[in-house]
Amino acid sequence: MKYDIFISYRRQNSFDTASLIAEKLRHAGYNVFFDVDTLNAGKFNVQLLDVIKNCKDFILILPANALDRCSDSEDWVRQEVLCAMQHNKNIIPVMLAGFEWPQTMPEGMEELRNYQAITSAGHDYFDLAMKRLIGYLKSKPSRFTRHIAVWGCTAVAVLTIILALLFYFGWRVTRTICTNVATQMSSCMGALDLLADVNNDVEEAVSYFFDQIPGATSEDIADLEKGLAMSIDKAEKESERYLKSVPQPQFNISAIQSIILGMRGIEKEELEAFAPYYVGMFDEVKDLCESVRMFIDEQLYNKTSRTTLEVTSRCFRHNLDAFYYAYMQQLSLIPQECRKTHYSLSGKWKNYPNGVPFGLSSEEYENFQLQEMTRMDAELDKIGSNVNYEEQQLDDMNEKLEQLDQQTKALEQSINETN
Fold first, then answer.
1. pTM over 0.70
2. pLDDT band for position 313 (50/70/90)?
3. Is 160 among the domain residues?
4. Angle formed at CA 97 by CA 91 and CA 99, multiple of 5 degrees
5. Helix axes of 255-262 and 268-298: crossing angle, nearest 10 degrees
6. Pairing of strands 57-62, 118-120
């Protein structure tokens, strides 16, 4: 059988792509030679050279480092390329991801880099690359073969292409997506660890302020207010700087990527919830700083004010711990080799729970989160207790004032009667 197109490839790193291209071309009606039998390393199959001599188009699949072995005169890819060049075939190099032309080309193959090449770097651009490839061919598709493909084999062809794409690009795409997601999430957790330091500094400044208030003179209080205000200014600036350095993540998950992540148990909705939660942690510290300013402006230096500020700070920590457990739950679903940013940054983190491993069940991570929420509710109850206590004190004071007022009126009436 006479073939119009010869596909040359290395079995390592390019077989799937070569097979996929051959299948696409065949179903488009082209006569394609694609050798699927294993060649012996020592003896080159001379019959392949006859196929090359009689074809019109020569497609060369080039994965990373494809030409490294072409300096060897026995290399079969070299022999195929030289045969195509010697017989003036229409050579179309197809460069896969990672391939670069070497600075020094193998002897006799120097002109190869001058042929019109096609880049096929990923599944998102594969169909476009195929259209360009077909546009460069000198061969014409067989009308009979094309009709058979259209009417008899369309469903099989589509299924074959989809499966080939999933197998060939599946892991590469999964790794790229997971690495992007893990990197953004881990970078955000690094920024939140620094934000936790800011929160701790604010709580420490508030506690010091209220410790010094009893017995302080008006001048002392003015100095304390100034010092606390300076601490709040610093906290707000640091918080803004950390959010600016690691802004809200943009995952931009496409429908196909969502399916791929879903196969690993990672839900798109969970990732979309991560971003606003992350920014919300910065809002909590901002609200804490604004509350401190309000108490300073109103000079509300009582027990309830102190409790409110300290509880707000501790609630931030519980909320952050719960967020950390949710982060670990999501990262556990991501392949270990995609977590490089986490391993690089986590050794410096100071404010997250210790000893939380990857690989726990979802229920275990969720139980950790629930515990933190329970602790936060207990902290909030303290504010309510203090408010109720002070309200009771105020009621007692009002009652005493009312009694005193009645006693005063009774005394005035007695004096008037005496006069």
1. no
2. very high
3. no
4. 60
5. 100
6. unpaired
Residues near 372 by beta carbon (within 8 Å), at least 6 away in sequence = 318, 319, 321, 322, 325
In tens, the pLDDT along 36-89 reads 543 444 444 677 888 999 999 999 999 988 899 998 988 889 999 999 999 999
Q: Please count the residues of the chain.
A: 419
Question: In terms of residue numbers, what domain contains 128?
Answer: 5-152
Structure tokens given for 30: 């082209």
Nearest CA-CA partner of 126 in 84, 174, 161: 161
* Same domain flag for 186 and 126: no
Cα separation, 328 vs 353, whole angstroms: 11
Which range, of 2-16, 107-121, 171-185, 404-418, averages the lowest pLDDT? 404-418
C-alpha angle 372-378-384 in degrees, rounded to nearest 5: 145
Residue 164 forms part of a structural domain: no
Say what the pLDDT of residue 1 is.
Answer: 65
- The secondary structure of 130-194 as a DSSP string is HHHHHHH------HHHHHHHHHHSHHHHHHHHHHHHHHHHHHHHHHHHHHHHHHHHHHHHHHHHH
Residue 399 DSSP class: H
Residue 104: inside a domain: yes
In this predicted structure, which of 95-104, 338-347, 404-413 has the lowest mean pLDDT? 404-413
Contact between residue 3 and residue 56 where contact means Cβ atoms under 8 Å apart: no
Instruction: Count structural domains, the chain.
Output: 2
Which helix (H) or strand (E) segment is 94 a member of? Answer: strand 90-96
What does the block give as tokens for 103? Answer: 């600075």
Residues 6+ positions from 71 with CB-CB distance below 8 Å: 78, 106, 107
Burial class (CB in 10 A: 0-12, 13-18, 19+), 185: buried
User: Are 292 and 232 within 8 A, CB to CB?
Assistant: yes
123-171 pLDDT, tens digit per residue, is 556 777 888 888 899 988 764 444 434 444 455 555 555 555 554 555 6
